[in-house]
Each structure stands twice: as structure tokens, then as C-alpha cells.
Amino acid sequence: MFSESAQKIIDERFGGDAKAFVQAHIHSRRGALNWNDIITSEKVFPEYASTVDDIIERLLGYSPPTYLTLPYESFLRAVVYGYHNGSISQDEMLEQSEEYIKLIRNKDMEDYSYLYHSREEYQQYFEYLPEYKEVVKNRFTKFLGYEPKLEHSVIAEILTRECFVQDRFILQEGILSQADIRAITIIKYREVLIELGREEADKSPLIAMELRYRVLNTEN
């Protein structure tokens, strides 16, 4: 399946784990910005750049890396322009924006779109930063209103434990952060993915606004 040189890298640098090698390769390629996207983004309604950033954060709940948003920014700006010149209503603007932002969400979820976790991932779940295991699990249970299944939340929980280590002020008690919303996006995406498949997961609704509303009502 792999060339001799690639197999050597898999054996020496990834401990023979071909899946980890492929994921690393995909991630490295995805991180490269497309020059045409950059040029287009600079030319198409640049005055709406900050508005689009706000819409992405509002509907998605967090701010993805530029390489994920850039291919869609010119389309989103055109939608905003349509609203400002009276061609579409605010509801239509948000509805059309949501479809593009789903594409951004789906790109962000690609690293988590496999059905089954490896034994190594489960091992990491139980052994990596175990002092934060219950804190993170309880945090998700509170925000979701139920305890997520492990097959849905393994990666989300690991990533959130890392957030606690990197900056404990990001995840304050009871306060829903962008890091929380991205992690819960992973959970909700994987719920649909495992139950109904990739196509349905890609069509699944964005969860940020509903999640914020739920957390706000729970607090009140």
C-alpha cells in the first residue's frame, strides 16, 4: 500500500501506525493556504471581513484557523453584501451563511470523522492527564444535559484536558467557552456520524446558538 520510503517513516516515526501517518500527512497538507483563496479574499468585499468573522463565531461558536475559513470567506462576504444592499433579509443571510459555515465545520471535523477509535486513543484517554478526567466529563455533562458516550467524546475530552493545562483561565467553572463549544461540536458530530453516517453528520445542524441558549437557561 505504501512505498518503501513511506513505510520506513511509518515504522520509525509512527511506531508502525499507518493511520497516524495518514492523519499527520492530511493535517500538514490542510494547513497550507491556497494562494488563489488569499487573493480572492482580499478582493471580494474586504469591508465585510470583520462581519463575516463575527457571523462565523456566532453560528459556529468558535474561531477556526484561517486555512479552514479562507476558501469560504468570499462567499460569506457576498451573502452579507446581499443583506446590506437589500437583496435578502437578515433571516436569509443567516440561513445562507449557515450552509457555508457547515462546510467549515465539516472540514474541521475531518480529523475526527472515523467510526472507531484505536486502542492507543483509548489508552491515551485513560492515561493522559487523568487528574482532569472527571472535571472534563462533568463539564460536558453539565453543558449537554447528559453524559456523552465515550465513543463520541474520547478526543473531545482529551483536547479539553489539554486546555486546562495550557491556560486554566480559558475554562472557568460554569462558563461556556469557545474551547467547550468546539469540543461539544466534535461530540455532537460524532453522535450523528456513528449513528447515521458521514453524509448525515455533514448535514447536521450547528450547535452553538442552541447550546448557548441551553446553558443560559440552565443558569437561570
N→C terminal distance: 56 Å
Query: So what's the overall shape?
Result: globular
- How many structurally independent domains? 3
**Number of DSSP-assigned strands:** 0
What structural category do the secondary elements indicate?
Answer: mainly alpha
Assign a percent range to the helix content: over 70%
Characterization of the model:
With 220 residues, this protein is an all-alpha fold. It has 3 domains: 1-30, no CATH class; 35-101, no CATH class; 112-219, no CATH class. It is built from 12 helices and no strands. The chain is globular.
Key traits:
220 residues; mainly alpha; 3 domains; globular; 12 helices
SSE layout:
Blueprint: H1 4-13, H2 18-30, H3 35-43, H4 49-60, H5 66-84, H6 90-108, H7 119-127, H8 133-144, H9 150-166, H10 178-196, H11 198-203, H12 208-219
Helix pairs in contact: 3-5, 4-6, 5-6, 7-9, 9-10
Short summary:
With 220 residues, the protein is an all-alpha fold. Helix content is 71%, strand content 0%. It is built from twelve helices and no strands.
